[in-house]
Amino acid sequence: MSFRHFLLIGFVAATTGCATLSSMPVGNRNVPQPAKSVELERYLGRWYELYRYDAPFQKGCEAVSADYSRNMDGSVRIVNSCRKGKVDGPMKTAIGKAKIVDAASGAKLKVSFFGPFYGDYWVLDHSDDYQWSIVGEPSGRYLWILSRDPRPSENLRAMLRHRAEQLKYDWSLVRETRH
Prior knowledge:
38% strand, single chain, Lipocalin, alpha+beta, eight-stranded antiparallel beta barrel, 20% helix
């Protein structure tokens, strides 16, 4: 099985409540609602993953990035990329799509990398200038902390950790992504 197939299957299993999901630790037993609205056009573009809760479908991924753009039908095209094993390892990509499910705030989306199966993607918080965001979902088993810069300042990193902890995420489960 190729890495891409593993990534797609892992994402589906994890986000649809299958056995994979139940075996992952819950890092936040009370995931908050998104703190602010999201202007999708400002959210589009490239994001670099700084931190995450490790998930089977991201095993061994470094230098993780996600590119968001509009599809012709208005949905969002997602291209997730990572380097397998090390920052200069072989590039792996997965292409998916997302749709907004909370039109009032724009902060709740459903994401699919495999057929008709969609998982939750909540933008829990972001900077006013869309330079960082904190993403989670209702089970509390997933967390991604993203930045427009793959190597932000230590002050920003410390602030993001503090903000994730304010949102009640267990920092001991966080894995730093190398770039």
